[in-house]
Amino acid sequence: MKVLVDTNVILDVLCDRKEFVADSLRVFQCCEAQRVTGYISALSIPNIVYIMRKELDPERIREILHTLTMVFSVVELREGDLLKAAELPFDDYEDAIQSTCAVRLGADYIVTRNGKDFANSAISAISPPDLLKRI
After folding, report:
1. Can you give the pLDDT at residue 55?
2. What would the pLDDT profile of 38-67 be if each residue is shown by its tens digit?
3. φ, ψ at 110 (rounded to 5°)
4. What is the C-alpha R_g of the chain?
5. In this structure, are strands 73-75 and 2-5 parallel, antiparallel, or unpaired?
6. Residue 38 to residues 19, 42, 56, 92: CA-CA distances in angstroms?
7. In three state form, how does the secondary structure of 21-35 look?
8. What is the H or E stretch that residue 37 is in?
9. Minimal CA–CA distance to 101: which of 6, 21, 1?
């Protein structure tokens, strides 16, 4: 099974978001153990660093990037992705880009805590707990 993991799931783990960290960490672990094939969009990387910039020094950023690229494959952004995303009926352009990358990748699911944001996605959104039930 191929999954595109949304930025919020990554941040649950990195920011130790108490109510979400356990399930999101299990998603990480399933990807690391190759029980599922996990991907993240290249867009997620600068967003993660931007959100965590006040808490991170350059060494910690390098460590996080190294870990993320060991656990997940990074889906590059293409010009076509950006243009297709702009045409999709999404309220949030970033979510549209995630959806477009998931389609190009042939993902089975987008793993996110914000499933409603992907209501117009050609790839179904699934929460971390729901993914874990399906594995």
Report:
1. 81
2. 999 999 999 999 988 888 888 988 999 999
3. -105, 120
4. 14
5. unpaired
6. 22, 13, 24, 23
7. HHHHHHHHHHHHCCC
8. strand 37-41
9. 6
Task: Please state, in angstroms and as integers, the Cα–Cα distance from residue 116 to each residue in 32, 70, 92, following that order.
Answer: 27, 29, 11
Convert the pLDDT of each residue in 66-97 to its tens digit.
999 999 999 999 999 999 999 999 999 999 99
- CA–CA dist 2, 35 (Å, integer): 10
Number of domains in the chain: 1
CA nearest 40: which of 96, 91, 101? 101
Q: Which amino acid appears at position 46 of this protein?
A: P
Whether the CB-CB separation of 40 and 4 falls below 8 Å is answered with yes
Query: What is the DSSP-derived secondary structure letter of residue 1?
Result: -
- Structural domain harbouring 26: 2-134
Q: How far apart are CA 92 and CA 88, in angstroms?
A: 10
Euclidean distance between the first and the last CA atom of the chain, given in angstroms as a whole number: 9
Q: What is the CATH number of the domain that holds 10?
A: 3.40.50.1010
Which tokens belong to 29?
């672990």
